[in-house]
């Protein structure tokens, strides 16, 4: 146990409640994704002051920047220089900001009231949430409401629960002593938490490396830079980091004035690749942090140039991102031809139904109504089985009483070149009751679903293309429904679940 002033730091995990949802844009990029080499200045010193450090973009594409010299937070709505707002918060030399919602903003207030404070867009009164004797260089809030602080001067990363103020501060990385071992840090800066597994990534600035601390581990693996086991890339004072939805790294390589991206083929430079600092549109000078908008465009706080630079995402096949000048989700750039439903997107192709799944880059199936309530956690069986071809259920296991306690589907996915793959998706729900299994014959497909739903999914029954009907499983509560589409068969399910099946949505493809 380590005492700092009146604070008690405990180097052991504690239990916190889990919540769902994310606060920032986290997209999936192709391995060869690229950005325009020339940036656009979306904010200069007149608006954001001198030496901008941090930048945060929420899911509404509002940009938040702490203004060093005016004790304010600058908001740019939709990244628009002509649509701005100032939030006066009595800040002084604030380094970092993190936004859960527009009324739930966390910012460094070390030089005003100390530590990290919470403010709202309608209030100038900061509420202290983490008291420290040194400044936090970066903050991050995980989906389970754990507030992380990059405690640079003490060579540590600390965390504290936002759910209860009674929990002590938690040491999640570093020993408090400077070093370059697997357990020590040297002036850490940027931090990012992978919400899929609670792994912590740290930009270990003066060790010129990125450290990965697996959940609840105080020993790290070097995943980029100096000392990495695998050949990666040389870094020079990395300051900011982010992950895409595939857990690939994006690194602000400050000393080299560039941005590095990771992919299937390793690391590569994507912005500022001129090997020199400068103020030209294709150069950076002491960049500090980065953030993405929902279109995949990259924004960088270009500190020594006193500006925020925007580097537009370049549309390419398999990007799965809606372009700003298109009405659909793009699978291949502007003026594309269409690719068939459930087929992998081809070069210069969009989906017939104007939707493209961003996890498999395949034209999505027609989706029915989401039936049930909003409890539990979101799931999609598409994330498990993928869609490299045509996917159909071949077996369904239901657990039911008055409600559907759980559903578990086994799928067959096939195409002409790779043959068939059988995949059983995870059980969606609990084990409060026994299983009831419905197996389909070879070539048999589900063409209709009957059921009942309300706050939960109350009951389900399936009808196949050969007229076979599964036994009704569930209770009599909720409202009855029937779902079928002429010429379509069931492909996969998504929904929400916890101890029960809270919600279900059926996705259909042409027979």
TrEMBL record:
Keyword Nucleotide-binding attached: no
SMART domains for the chain: Jacalin
Domain Jacalin-type lectin: start-end pairs: 365-510
Keyword annotations from UniProtKB, A to Z: Lectin, Repeat, Signal
Gene3D superfamilies: 2.40.10.500, Jacalin-like lectin domain, TolB, C-terminal domain
PROSITE patterns assigned to the protein according to its UniProt record, in alphabetical order: JACALIN_LECTIN, NHL
Protein name from the UniProt record: Jacalin-type lectin domain-containing protein
One of the record's GO molecular function terms: carbohydrate binding
CDD domains assigned to the protein according to its UniProt record, in alphabetical order: NHL
Signal sequence residues: 1-17
Pfam families: Jacalin, NHL
NHL repeat feature ranges: 176-216, 276-314
Entry keyword annotation includes Repeat: yes
